[in-house]
Design goal:
Blueprint (H helix, E strand, L loop, with lengths): L2 E2 L26 H10 L4 H14 L3 H25 L6 H8 L2 H33 L5 H17 L2 H30 L12 H4 L8 H15 L5 H5 L6 H30 L5 H5 L2 H8 L5 H33 L10 E2 L4 H20 L4 H9 L2 H23 L13 H19 L1 H27 L6
Antiparallel strand pairs: 1-2
Protein name: Amino acid permease
Family: Belongs to the amino acid-polyamine-organocation (APC) superfamily. Amino acid transporter (AAT) (TC 2.A.3.1) family.
Keywords: Amino-acid transport, Membrane, Transmembrane, Transmembrane helix, Transport
């Protein structure tokens, strides 16, 4: 049983004297774990429930919206895969941003992502508790949240292979559920499912047509679809603890991209073909439930509740893991409190504990301050994932040439049509920012996230100029 610490370093990631946390972590994840983490990371409640609001706004054109945002996500995943295969690190894009732009960028991207994951842990715990209290009325929500927190705290405090096994089976259940849904939906669309008639194109062209709410509705659907894809970053964080990080992340990225597109775009196409987009059930109880109910599947609500519960618990598990590794990586690079970086038996247990406690604090805020502090917290993390994607794209743009000159053999995964598609992706992200400014709800999110990013960037620049080590 080894006990090691991750000491801070003021050197950059490229410096020979840099001490990173990765050497202290174990390598207990297998290829099957990485593949399922890559798939399961983006298949969450945002798809099963959140997509209903997008369909209600965009109508059948939500298929195009998910196709466009899915393409952007594929670009981001490819860029991140290129850098992570060349330099696997538990800090993932934070390490890449530090190498490409400077310590302040790694600090900003890393801690913003940590806050996002911790708040998300709390939100997912609340969502899971609501489902269970629906089955067991009278039981307190906070007790279920506490139980889930303790369960995944235990999972993440143990060896990393336990996290990998949990995620493998959670992700497998989600993939099986979506696959069965797509098969049933396709059979119904073709008119070969017993008891159903082929809908033809009536739901795609009726009730206002393919674009029933005009361009404004399409924009709302597009923004909803962009943020439904968050979660792909976890696989590159986990790759640093796999048996073969380079080959592992390369294979996971390649196989996951087209499957993600199939699941998201395919699911939206099946739903809007089967169910009228303005059916109240789509937004109220979720599009997957509405589609299953339309097909006459008995117990559709309970089936979807089980799937959503699995998705939420999977996300809790993955986010505690991702937050702890990101925090530990930041500390190892002198970007956080030294004591948080201790690694015991290959696990950053203090980082796991602090990340979980912060997540549970967010849950308590939802009860204590539901009208002011908690909504502000939600707005603050609303667009963090887009900020992270921008750091990824800029980092890849700067690091590609450096890697080609210094170690071209490390480019196991290459971004397509570099630098054209990287620049296209950055332009698309800038466009999404402009679209968010047009919408009142997303404008508040963007401004709050912008404030968080500016504060972190200011602290990062100050620390960089002072040449500060870790906070003691």
């Amino acid at each position: 049983m080894s006990r090691t610490s991750a000491p801070p370093s003021t050197a950059g990631p490229d410096s020979p004297g840099t001490v990173t946390v990765d050497s202290a972590l174990t390598h207990g994840l297998k290829q099957r774990h990485l593949s399922m983490i890559a798939l399961g990371g983006v298949i969450g409640a945002g798809l099963f429930v959140g997509s209903g609001a997008g369909i209600a706004a965009a109508g059948p054109s939500i298929v195009i919206a998910y196709g466009i945002s899915g393409l952007l996500v594929m670009f981001v995943m490819r860029m991140l895969g290129e850098m992570s295969a060349a330099n696997p690190a538990s800090g993932s894009f934070s390490v890449h941003a530090e190498r490409a732009i400077g310590p302040w960028a790694g600090f900003t991207a890393g801690w913003a992502f940590w806050v996002l994951l911790c708040v998300a842990v709390g939100l997912e715990g609340i969502g899971a508790a609501k489902i269970v209290t629906g089955w067991l009325p009278g039981t307190p929500e906070w007790a279920w949240v506490a139980l889930f927190m303790v369960m995944f705290l235990g999972t993440n405090l143990a060896a990393v292979k336990n996290f990998g096994e949990f995620e493998f089976w959670f992700a497998s259940l989600k993939v099986i559920a979506i696959t069965l849904f797509l098969v049933l939906g396709l059979l119904a669309i073709l008119g070969v499912l017993p008891g159903t008639d082929a809908p033809g194109t009536s739901n795609l062209s009726g009730e206002g047509g393919f674009l029933p709410n005009g361009s404004n509705g399409f924009i709302i659907g597009l923004l909803a679809s962009v943020f439904a894809y968050g979660g792909l970053e976890t696989v590159t964080i986990a790759a640093a603890e796999s048996e073969n990080p380079v080959q592992g992340v390369a294979k996971a990225v390649r196989t996951a991209m087209w499957r993600i597109g199939l699941f998201y775009v395919g699911s939206m196409a099946v739903i809007v073909a089967l169910v009228p987009w303005d059916d109240p059930k789509v937004a109220e109880v979720g599009p997957f439930y509405a589609a299953l109910d339309h097909l006459g599947i008995s117990g559709a609500a309970e089936i979807m509740n089980v799937v959503i519960l699995v998705a939420l618990l999977s996300a809790m598990n993955a986010n505690i893991y991702g937050a702890s590794r990101m925090a530990c990586s930041l500390v190892s690079r002198g970007q956080g409190p030294v004591r948080l970086g201790k690694v015991t038996s290959g696990v950053p247990r203090r980082a796991v504990l602090v990340s979980s406690v912060f997540g549970f604090l967010c849950v308590l805020l939802s009860y204590w301050r539901p009208d002011d502090v908690f909504p502000w917290l939600l707005n603050m993390i609303g667009a963090v994932i887009l900020v992270v994607w921008i750091f990824i794209a800029v980092s890849q743009l700067l690091l590609r040439g450096r890697t080609e000159r210094e170690a071209p053999e490390k480019l196991v995964v290459r971004m397509w049509l570099f630098p054209v598609l990287t620049i296209v992706a950055l332009a698309a992200m800038a466009g999404i920012f402009l679209l968010m400014l047009r919408q009142p709800d997303t404008r508040n999110q963007l401004l709050a996230t912008g404030l968080l990013t500016l504060v972190l960037a200011g602290i990062g620049v100050w620390r960089q100029r002072k040449g500060a080590g870790a906070v003691r």
